Amino acid sequence: MPSVTPPERILRAASLQRWESVTFLHWAYPPGKLQRLLPPGLEIDVVEGTAWLGVTPLAMRGVRPGLLPPVPGWSDFLEVNVRTYVHHPASGTDGVWFLRLVCPRAAMVVAMRALGVPYRRFAGSVEPGRDATRYRGNHARWGSIDVTVHPGERVAEPSPWLVAVTGRWNAYTWRAGRLWRVPVEHPPWPLHRATVTGTSDLVRHTGLQPPVTGPTVSWSPGVDVRLGLPRPLPRG
Questions:
Q1: Average confidence score pLDDT of the chain
Q2: Is 213 inside a domain boundary?
Q3: Does residue 2 sit within a domain?
Q4: How far is Cα 135 from Cα 209, in angstroms, rounded to an integer?
Q5: pLDDT (tens digit, 9 = 90+) per residue, 213-223?
Q6: Which of 27, 88, 161, 207 is the most exposed place for a label (fewest CB within 10 A)?
Q7: Domain containing 83 — which CATH number?
Q8: CB–CB of 199/147 below 8 Å?
Q9: What is the DSSP string of 99-144?
């Protein structure tokens, strides 16, 4: 189940990276609208009576395979993911299903698509500042984002809802006709309340109707992350 701390240690990391200036934008959606976008074996999680769609822009820093150093000028870039929250009944695990991820690194896109992760390439940048962070990117086919986030006060104790949408320790992928689980380990999120201005149409490019209300917004300065090797899941 979702938790503040990871349920397992990753002793041999497939990748090391830092996630910085992370913004969580969330909207409520009818569970059935999101369930139809999932592969066989995954079920949508309902939190506080509804399902949730997240758009998460962040700065990826020091991205590298577990045994190699970062590559200067390549290992730092913008990523934006569109996600929802799911569980896999056959294994008893829960985590994140990505509807779309975008970043400007062609090699990253190719590598992740080979693992079944729906990456797409688009031009984009993160502009961190003292009081705000701006995320910008666009592609004629995959959509665009231009939002500025203003962090506020630190969240002393995350609510059950906030833990449910940030305390996820697996990412699921679909490859070679089956589901795989990628375990994630990092320290507890330092979370802040935040406000946002600007627009994005990334949701529309997933096949969903765009949100008609403003998002619930949270922000984090970041965490150091260890990703484990993909593990095949039992067929349910």
A1: 95
A2: yes
A3: no
A4: 22
A5: 999 999 999 99
A6: 207
A7: 2.40.400.10
A8: yes
A9: EEEEES-HHHHHHHHHTT--EEE-EEEEEE-SS-EEEEEEETTTEE
